Amino acid sequence: MKKTIWILFISAVSALVLSSCDREKLTYDEPAPEVKTTGQLNLKSMKVNYQDNSEAVQSAPASIKNILKATSAVSTSSFIVKVLNSDNVEQGKWIYSAMPEIITLKTGSYKIAVYSQEEVQSEWETPYYYAEKDFVINESSITNIGTLLCTLHNIKVTVTYDEKLKALLGEDCTVNISIGKGQLKFSKEETRAGYFKAEKEENVLTAEFSGTVDGETDVQLYKVFTSVKAGQHRIVKFTLKDTDNSSNQEEGSASAGITLDASCTIIDKNISVDAGEEIIPDDPKPEPEPEPEPDNAPSITGKDFDINKAQKTSELSTVIVLVSCPEGETVTGMTVDIKSPTLTPEELINVGLNSHLDLVNPGEQKQGLIDLGLPWGDQVKGQNNLKMDISQFVPLLSLLGPGTHKFEIKVISSSGQSAIKTLTLVTE
Prior knowledge:
Elements: H1 2-29, E1 38-42, E2 47-51, H2 64-70, E3 80-85, E4 90-95, E5 102-106, E6 108-115, E7 122-124, E8 129-137, E9 142-144, E10 147-152, E11 155-161, H3 163-166, E12 174-179, E13 182-187, E14 194-196, E15 203-213, E16 216-228, E17 232-240, E18 260-268, E19 271-274, E20 299-302, E21 311-312, E22 320-324, E23 331-339, H4 345-349, E24 356-358, H5 366-371, E25 385-389, H6 393-399, E26 403-413, E27 418-427
Parallel strand pairs: 1-9, 2-10, 11-17, 21-27
Antiparallel strand pairs: 1-5, 3-4, 3-6, 6-8, 7-14, 8-10, 11-14, 12-13, 12-15, 15-16, 17-18, 18-19, 20-22, 22-25, 23-24, 23-26, 26-27
């Protein structure tokens, strides 16, 4: 009996030892917990701007002042800010005006996205502005974002008629516009813009007209436009097509007496282009080769472009002129003379400017320079290096129509040396 008890005791002890060893083995086999260090993202350092890169008109508006008002209609305070990690997992989401100043994140790669609102398939007067930027969080460091420029990321569509056709339209006339899954119906008097989601890099726009024209009922026209891209403003214009031979009528027209046609004008990055047509710059003569400046004269150059050559505004995202003086010298005088077929004195006076700008002593033009973000006074005088950013002029020039615009820039240094360069911008 004692022997049996002793055997059972030994077996129990052995089982406990083996179990303990197994537990110990499991503990040793487990990987060490991951140690993830952190850094900080300074959201307070981020500035959000927007640019309506589609906004342009086919004819010159009444005033440049109205353009300035139109381009400042959107408030970025309600824009949405989102931070995502490298796996595209959301790490935080806020309204721009109410986001925290600093947040803590694990070290690694991230992306910050800013947009005007949640994008929908189609809606009236809801432009979708978007921008994103990649950044890295380093251990025990603060990462700053800088400025994000949100641009139009959906497709803007408006519908127009030529005057001859519009006079013949019945009240039942409608145009159904479709892009992808988005669809909007434009009535005869509809002046609002429709905004459509760009599902692909190149999308298809269909325009379907139906209604009564000059007493003819059930007139129809179905038109397809391809290569429609995000950021474009598509103006679909319907016209009355004159024809004496019914056999030559546009397919889709339901009436033997009425023939319609439709065209689509593309306004992309402030440039108006009729689809399929080649645009020739309004620059009749090449600029003469500039005379060399003295070695000790101020320098006037373009940032990322050749100021000595005419520049198409379609090829410039920004227009920044850089001015520098030789070591030990500073700027004492700087003027800009504007020669433009559309930036007339009448237009310029609406924004507090005229065709001759004195940046050192602006006088009554001071507020106009401030409104357009141009340097003035002590921001120019006494400076060894400075930049003049006239990017805000680019959309204004384009909105006012095609033309060749010259900005003659003259800089005088403290040694009395001067330099003159002419910045030539071509809008199409």
